[in-house]
Prior knowledge:
Elements: E1 9-14, H1 21-30, E2 35-40, H2 46-51, E3 57-61, E4 69-77, E5 79-84, E6 94-96, E7 104-106, E8 121-122, H3 130-138, E9 143-147, H4 148-153, E10 159-165, E11 170-177, H5 183-192
Parallel strand pairs: 1-2, 1-3, 6-10, 7-8, 7-9
Antiparallel strand pairs: 3-11, 4-11, 5-9, 5-10
InterPro entries: LysR_subst-bd
Region (Disordered): 195-262
Family: Belongs to the LysR transcriptional regulatory family.
Amino acid sequence: MTGSEESPAFRLACVPGVTPSKWVRIWNERLPHIILTLTQVPAAEVCEALRRGEADAGFVRLPVDGDDLSAIPLYEETTVVVIPKDHLFAAADEVAVADLAEEVALHPLDDTLDWEQPPGRPALERPATTADAVELVAAGIGVLIVPQSLARLHHRKDLTYRTITDVPTSRVALSWPQEATTDMVEDFIGIVRGRTANSTRGRRAEPEPKAKRPEKGATRRQQPAGGKGGGRGAGKTAGKPAAKNARRGSGGPKGGKPRRRP
Length: 262
Protein backbone atom coordinates (compact mmCIF):
# COMPACT_ATOMS: atom_id res chain seq x y z
CA MET A 1 0.00 0.00 0.00
CA THR A 2 1.37 3.38 -0.96
CA GLY A 3 1.31 6.45 1.24
CA SER A 4 -1.42 8.05 -0.88
CA GLU A 5 -3.85 5.16 -0.30
CA GLU A 6 -6.10 5.23 2.74
CA SER A 7 -7.48 2.21 4.57
CA PRO A 8 -11.26 1.88 4.22
CA ALA A 9 -13.22 3.02 7.27
CA PHE A 10 -16.83 2.82 8.40
CA ARG A 11 -17.95 5.81 10.49
CA LEU A 12 -20.67 5.06 13.01
CA ALA A 13 -22.47 7.71 15.08
CA CYS A 14 -24.12 6.82 18.38
CA VAL A 15 -26.47 8.74 20.67
CA PRO A 16 -25.80 8.74 24.43
CA GLY A 17 -27.04 5.67 26.28
CA VAL A 18 -26.82 3.24 23.36
CA THR A 19 -24.10 0.60 23.72
CA PRO A 20 -23.20 -0.89 20.31
CA SER A 21 -20.26 -2.95 21.61
CA LYS A 22 -21.77 -6.29 20.50
CA TRP A 23 -22.24 -5.14 16.91
CA VAL A 24 -18.84 -3.45 16.81
CA ARG A 25 -17.19 -6.68 17.98
CA ILE A 26 -18.91 -8.70 15.24
CA TRP A 27 -17.85 -6.13 12.64
CA ASN A 28 -14.21 -6.38 13.75
CA GLU A 29 -14.37 -10.18 13.55
CA ARG A 30 -15.93 -10.29 10.09
CA LEU A 31 -14.30 -7.26 8.46
CA PRO A 32 -10.95 -6.74 10.20
CA HIS A 33 -9.56 -4.93 7.14
CA ILE A 34 -12.17 -2.13 7.48
CA ILE A 35 -11.71 0.15 10.49
CA LEU A 36 -14.90 1.06 12.36
CA THR A 37 -14.80 4.46 14.07
CA LEU A 38 -17.42 5.21 16.72
CA THR A 39 -18.43 8.78 17.59
CA GLN A 40 -20.95 9.86 20.22
CA VAL A 41 -23.34 12.54 18.96
CA PRO A 42 -26.16 14.24 20.94
CA ALA A 43 -29.59 12.84 20.10
CA ALA A 44 -30.79 16.20 18.79
CA GLU A 45 -27.85 16.48 16.36
CA VAL A 46 -27.30 12.97 15.03
CA CYS A 47 -29.70 13.24 12.07
CA GLU A 48 -28.01 16.39 10.80
CA ALA A 49 -24.62 14.74 11.24
CA LEU A 50 -25.77 11.94 8.94
CA ARG A 51 -27.08 14.41 6.37
CA ARG A 52 -23.79 16.31 6.37
CA GLY A 53 -21.91 13.09 5.70
CA GLU A 54 -20.07 13.13 9.03
CA ALA A 55 -21.02 9.47 9.58
CA ASP A 56 -22.03 6.60 7.31
CA ALA A 57 -24.74 5.38 9.70
CA GLY A 58 -25.82 5.99 13.25
CA PHE A 59 -27.83 4.75 16.19
CA VAL A 60 -30.63 7.25 16.72
CA ARG A 61 -33.74 7.62 18.83
CA LEU A 62 -37.01 7.58 16.92
CA PRO A 63 -38.76 9.39 15.40
CA VAL A 64 -36.38 10.42 12.62
CA ASP A 65 -37.30 13.73 11.03
CA GLY A 66 -37.47 13.88 7.23
CA ASP A 67 -37.85 11.27 4.49
CA ASP A 68 -34.24 11.33 3.33
CA LEU A 69 -33.04 9.05 6.13
CA SER A 70 -33.74 5.32 6.28
CA ALA A 71 -34.27 3.77 9.70
CA ILE A 72 -34.50 0.21 11.02
CA PRO A 73 -36.07 0.02 14.52
CA LEU A 74 -33.98 -2.22 16.78
CA TYR A 75 -35.45 -2.21 20.27
CA GLU A 76 -37.59 -0.27 22.74
CA GLU A 77 -36.27 0.94 26.08
CA THR A 78 -37.91 0.89 29.48
CA THR A 79 -38.67 4.33 30.91
CA VAL A 80 -37.60 5.08 34.49
CA VAL A 81 -37.78 7.91 37.00
CA VAL A 82 -34.49 9.01 38.58
CA ILE A 83 -34.82 9.88 42.28
CA PRO A 84 -32.64 10.32 45.39
CA LYS A 85 -32.03 7.09 47.29
CA ASP A 86 -33.97 8.40 50.29
CA HIS A 87 -37.02 9.36 48.21
CA LEU A 88 -40.41 7.84 49.05
CA PHE A 89 -40.55 6.18 45.61
CA ALA A 90 -37.40 4.18 46.38
CA ALA A 91 -39.49 1.79 48.50
CA ALA A 92 -41.65 0.82 45.48
CA ASP A 93 -40.86 -1.56 42.62
CA GLU A 94 -42.46 0.73 40.04
CA VAL A 95 -44.17 4.10 39.92
CA ALA A 96 -47.29 5.22 38.06
CA VAL A 97 -47.24 8.51 36.21
CA ALA A 98 -50.14 9.72 38.38
CA ASP A 99 -47.86 9.43 41.42
CA LEU A 100 -45.78 12.32 40.07
CA ALA A 101 -48.64 14.82 40.21
CA GLU A 102 -47.11 16.72 43.14
CA GLU A 103 -43.48 16.21 42.14
CA VAL A 104 -41.31 18.73 40.27
CA ALA A 105 -40.51 16.85 37.07
CA LEU A 106 -37.40 18.11 35.31
CA HIS A 107 -37.69 18.34 31.53
CA PRO A 108 -34.25 18.95 29.95
CA LEU A 109 -33.91 20.53 26.52
CA ASP A 110 -32.31 17.35 25.16
CA ASP A 111 -35.17 15.15 26.40
CA THR A 112 -35.54 12.09 24.15
CA LEU A 113 -39.11 11.15 25.13
CA ASP A 114 -41.97 12.25 22.92
CA TRP A 115 -44.30 13.91 25.44
CA GLU A 116 -47.68 15.38 24.70
CA GLN A 117 -47.66 16.85 28.18
CA PRO A 118 -44.82 16.14 30.65
CA PRO A 119 -46.11 14.88 34.02
CA GLY A 120 -45.70 16.54 37.39
CA ARG A 121 -45.13 20.18 38.17
CA PRO A 122 -42.78 22.04 35.80
CA ALA A 123 -39.52 23.46 37.11
CA LEU A 124 -38.89 27.19 37.00
CA GLU A 125 -36.32 26.63 34.26
CA ARG A 126 -35.62 23.72 31.95
CA PRO A 127 -32.12 22.23 32.36
CA ALA A 128 -29.98 22.42 29.23
CA THR A 129 -28.95 18.75 29.25
CA THR A 130 -29.84 15.45 30.88
CA ALA A 131 -26.56 15.59 32.78
CA ASP A 132 -27.57 18.96 34.26
CA ALA A 133 -30.97 17.54 35.23
CA VAL A 134 -29.30 14.64 37.05
CA GLU A 135 -27.31 17.14 39.12
CA LEU A 136 -30.56 18.88 40.07
CA VAL A 137 -32.11 15.56 41.13
CA ALA A 138 -29.11 14.95 43.38
CA ALA A 139 -29.65 18.41 44.88
CA GLY A 140 -33.26 17.54 45.72
CA ILE A 141 -34.80 19.96 43.19
CA GLY A 142 -37.01 17.40 41.44
CA VAL A 143 -37.21 14.04 39.67
CA LEU A 144 -36.22 13.09 36.13
CA ILE A 145 -37.90 10.71 33.66
CA VAL A 146 -35.53 9.17 31.09
CA PRO A 147 -34.86 5.94 29.15
CA GLN A 148 -33.19 3.37 31.38
CA SER A 149 -29.92 3.50 29.43
CA LEU A 150 -29.53 7.20 30.24
CA ALA A 151 -30.20 6.55 33.92
CA ARG A 152 -27.37 4.01 33.85
CA LEU A 153 -25.11 6.34 31.90
CA HIS A 154 -25.50 9.10 34.51
CA HIS A 155 -25.45 6.78 37.52
CA ARG A 156 -24.52 8.27 40.90
CA LYS A 157 -24.14 6.57 44.26
CA ASP A 158 -26.68 8.90 45.87
CA LEU A 159 -29.35 8.30 43.20
CA THR A 160 -31.47 5.37 42.08
CA TYR A 161 -34.30 4.82 39.60
CA ARG A 162 -37.58 2.97 39.34
CA THR A 163 -39.66 1.83 36.37
CA ILE A 164 -42.51 4.21 35.58
CA THR A 165 -45.69 3.13 33.79
CA ASP A 166 -48.10 4.87 31.41
CA VAL A 167 -45.41 7.08 29.86
CA PRO A 168 -43.76 7.27 26.42
CA THR A 169 -40.87 4.95 25.68
CA SER A 170 -37.75 5.50 23.60
CA ARG A 171 -37.12 3.39 20.50
CA VAL A 172 -33.59 2.97 19.19
CA ALA A 173 -32.97 2.55 15.46
CA LEU A 174 -30.14 2.30 12.96
CA SER A 175 -30.35 5.15 10.45
CA TRP A 176 -28.43 6.25 7.36
CA PRO A 177 -28.96 8.54 4.32
CA GLN A 178 -31.02 6.78 1.65
CA GLU A 179 -28.78 8.12 -1.10
CA ALA A 180 -25.69 6.67 0.58
CA THR A 181 -26.60 3.01 1.05
CA THR A 182 -23.11 1.66 0.46
CA ASP A 183 -21.85 -1.91 0.69
CA MET A 184 -20.42 -1.13 4.13
CA VAL A 185 -23.82 0.13 5.29
CA GLU A 186 -25.39 -3.08 3.96
CA ASP A 187 -22.79 -5.10 5.85
CA PHE A 188 -23.62 -3.33 9.12
CA ILE A 189 -27.36 -3.72 8.52
CA GLY A 190 -26.76 -7.45 8.21
CA ILE A 191 -24.88 -7.49 11.50
CA VAL A 192 -27.55 -5.67 13.52
CA ARG A 193 -30.23 -7.89 11.97
CA GLY A 194 -28.37 -11.01 13.00
CA ARG A 195 -27.44 -12.32 9.57
CA THR A 196 -24.66 -14.86 9.38
CA ALA A 197 -21.26 -14.12 7.90
CA ASN A 198 -22.10 -16.17 4.78
CA SER A 199 -25.34 -14.34 4.05
CA THR A 200 -25.32 -12.28 0.84
CA ARG A 201 -28.71 -10.65 1.39
CA GLY A 202 -28.52 -6.94 0.68
CA ARG A 203 -25.28 -7.27 -1.23
CA ARG A 204 -25.12 -7.50 -4.96
CA ALA A 205 -24.30 -11.09 -5.77
CA GLU A 206 -20.91 -11.64 -7.34
CA PRO A 207 -21.16 -13.13 -10.86
CA GLU A 208 -20.20 -16.77 -10.95
CA PRO A 209 -17.20 -17.60 -13.14
CA LYS A 210 -18.10 -19.20 -16.45
CA ALA A 211 -17.31 -22.88 -16.76
CA LYS A 212 -14.39 -23.62 -19.06
CA ARG A 213 -15.24 -25.32 -22.32
CA PRO A 214 -13.61 -28.75 -22.63
CA GLU A 215 -10.71 -28.98 -25.02
CA LYS A 216 -11.46 -30.38 -28.43
CA GLY A 217 -11.41 -34.15 -28.37
CA ALA A 218 -11.02 -34.30 -24.58
CA THR A 219 -14.30 -36.16 -24.15
CA ARG A 220 -13.75 -38.72 -26.95
CA ARG A 221 -13.88 -42.24 -25.62
CA GLN A 222 -10.63 -44.13 -25.71
CA GLN A 223 -10.49 -47.22 -27.88
CA PRO A 224 -9.82 -50.45 -26.03
CA ALA A 225 -6.39 -51.96 -26.52
CA GLY A 226 -6.27 -54.20 -29.54
CA GLY A 227 -9.64 -53.00 -30.74
CA LYS A 228 -8.24 -51.28 -33.78
CA GLY A 229 -5.54 -52.40 -36.19
CA GLY A 230 -5.38 -55.93 -34.78
CA GLY A 231 -6.48 -57.64 -38.01
CA ARG A 232 -9.71 -59.32 -38.90
CA GLY A 233 -11.01 -61.55 -36.18
CA ALA A 234 -8.38 -60.38 -33.76
CA GLY A 235 -9.33 -60.91 -30.21
CA LYS A 236 -12.23 -63.23 -30.99
CA THR A 237 -10.65 -66.18 -29.20
CA ALA A 238 -9.02 -64.20 -26.49
CA GLY A 239 -10.12 -65.44 -23.14
CA LYS A 240 -12.25 -68.22 -24.69
CA PRO A 241 -12.18 -71.40 -22.55
CA ALA A 242 -10.50 -74.49 -24.05
CA ALA A 243 -12.84 -76.98 -25.71
CA LYS A 244 -13.66 -80.03 -23.68
CA ASN A 245 -12.74 -83.46 -24.98
CA ALA A 246 -15.62 -85.12 -26.73
CA ARG A 247 -15.00 -88.45 -24.97
CA ARG A 248 -14.17 -89.11 -21.38
CA GLY A 249 -10.92 -90.87 -20.73
CA SER A 250 -9.23 -89.54 -23.84
CA GLY A 251 -5.59 -90.38 -24.22
CA GLY A 252 -6.06 -94.21 -23.76
CA PRO A 253 -5.33 -96.80 -26.49
CA LYS A 254 -7.75 -97.06 -29.36
CA GLY A 255 -9.77 -100.17 -30.11
CA GLY A 256 -11.92 -100.66 -27.08
CA LYS A 257 -11.13 -102.96 -24.13
CA PRO A 258 -7.52 -104.13 -23.46
CA ARG A 259 -6.61 -107.83 -23.88
CA ARG A 260 -6.06 -110.07 -20.92
CA ARG A 261 -2.80 -111.95 -20.54
CA PRO A 262 -3.03 -115.71 -20.87
